[in-house]
TrEMBL record:
PANTHER family: ABC TRANSPORTER PERMEASE, ABC TRANSPORTER, MEMBRANE PROTEIN. It is a multi-pass membrane protein. InterPro entries: ABC-4/HrtB_transporter (IPR051125), ABC3_permease_C (IPR003838), MacB_PCD (IPR025857). GO terms for cellular component: plasma membrane. It comes from Croceivirga radicis. It comes from the Bacteria. The lineage of its organism: Bacteria, Pseudomonadati, Bacteroidota, Flavobacteriia, Flavobacteriales. The chain crosses the membrane at residues 16-38, 272-293, 314-347, 367-390. Residues 18-197 form the MacB-like periplasmic core domain. This is Permease. Pfam families: FtsX (PF02687), MacB_PCD (PF12704). It is found in: Cell membrane.
Length: 402
């Protein structure tokens, strides 16, 4: 009988041990790999959605809320700021790019954002079909919006006040779809982009129909939600935020800094789950060690007979080690499959809440480090279980059995 047949026979003769070892080890592997990939995917998704936005300027309030609402579009705005005051900031020679944005309406839950052509450059946006909005009431939609709502070029729709699809008060004016963005896995995928004039016209039409002749003075009294900025050099990033916060009635927030703060808080939960997975991994290692060690002790007579028939310590050690390795390899395969299944479920939930596909990110270096760590811990347990073989007194074991 060859080595592999002996190994498989031993595993079949201990179905409960094999099942419990594979089950516990698979759970710990699934948790470790799943949490690692989930954390990397979510962080990458949020950081990717920041685009090239170095600074966001808005109304006084929470800087994190300002970033979440104006850059990631997952929160309510802190308020509005004066459009003329915001434009004054863009005259700073250190500023490379600036895009005022205004929002507050939605279409079936997807936010409608009024902005300028400069907005696309923050996200390296590309139009798949059609053109960018130029005239009032023209809109270009994200790939997710087009897919979920079935909108095509030339279609029209009416916006509703508010940022959720629960809003029931629709405006009278109609938007026309003139373009569709390419899929980018950025926040752009779930936005409806139009001109600033479109947002102003929609609300002016509803609230001030009798004052349409004042269009020439429109920009002097208009407001926007926030202003997105990028800088030519780090100098602008060091000096501009303090100047805005201290000398204006607006606030400046650094998206990357605020996201790092957010991830520090969420990282506590990630670490807690990881530690639980490591504890399960250690328990699994101990279980495999005890089982293999017990097997060596209980089958001492059989192993001694194998030695008398010419089997070396290396041969017997190989058989025992292969039993443990088979369990580890099977657990790795099942654990990886469980992690991907769990991630698919989590990503589906996140897609429903964020209205956007999340690009799975596999941090290869961390992934390999985790797999190597798992293998190292288990192999140490296997090695410890084999130690009694080299201390076995064959003659004493055979004489005791007689």
């Amino acid at each position: 009988m060859n080595t592999w047949k002996i190994v498989l026979s031993n595993l079949k003769n201990k179905p409960l041990y094999t099942f419990l070892s594979v089950f516990s080890l698979s759970i710990s592997i699934a948790l470790l790999l799943g949490v690692l990939q989930l954390d990397a995917s979510v962080q990458n998704q949020f950081k990717n959605s920041l685009g090239n936005v170095d600074l966001v300027v808005g109304a006084k309030g929470s800087p994190l809320q300002l970033v979440l609402s104006s850059v990631l579009h997952v929160d309510n705005p802190t308020g509005n700021i004066s459009y003329p005051e915001a434009i004054k900031l863009t005259r700073n020679p250190l500023i490379k790019n600036a895009a005022p944005i205004s929002y507050g309406d939605n279409y079936k839950g997807y936010r409608i954002v009024g902005t300028t052509p400069a907005f696309d450059s923050f996200y390296a946006a590309e139009i798949a079909t059609g053109t960018s909005p130029i005239n009032s009431m023209e809109a270009v939609i994200g790939s997710e919006v087009a897919q979920k709502l079935g909108l095509q070029l030339g279609d029209t729709f009416k916006s509703a006040h508010g940022l959720t699809d629960e809003a029931i008060a629709a405006h009278d004016a109609e938007f026309k779809v003139v373009g569709i963005y390419k899929k980018s896995y950025k926040v752009l995928d779930r936005l409806i982009i139009t001109t600033l004039e479109s947002i102003w016209d929609v609300h002016d039409h509803d609230e001030h129909e009798e004052h349409e002749h004042e269009e020439a003075h429109q920009h002097e009294t208009k407001e926007v939600t926030s202003l997105l900025l990028s800088f030519r050099s780090p100098v602008g990033l060091l000096t501009t935020p303090r100047m805005i916060n201290e000398k204006t009635n607006m606030q400046a927030a650094l998206p990357k800094f605020e996201l790092d703060r957010l991830f520090k808080f969420t990282g506590i939960g990630i670490q807690a789950i990881s530690w639980i997975a490591y504890i399960i991994l250690i328990i699994s290692c101990i279980t495999i060690f005890i089982s293999l060690y017990k097997m060596v002790k209980e089958r001492a007579f059989d192993l001694a007979l194998m030695r008398t028939y010419g089997a070396s310590n290396l041969k017997i050690s190989t058989i025992i080690a292969l039993e443990g390795i088979c369990i580890v390899v099977l657990s790795l395969l099942i654990g990886f499959a469980l992690s991907q299944l769990g991630l698919h479920f989590v990503f589906t939930i996140l897609k429903s809440s964020l209205q956007q596909d999340i690009m799975p990110t596999l941090p290869l270096q961390s992934f390999l480090y985790t797999v190597i760590l798992i293998l190292a811990v288990i192999l140490i347990g296997i090695a410890m279980a084999i130690v009694p073989l080299f201390k076995m007194n064959i003659s004493k074991i055979l004489s005791d059995e007689k």
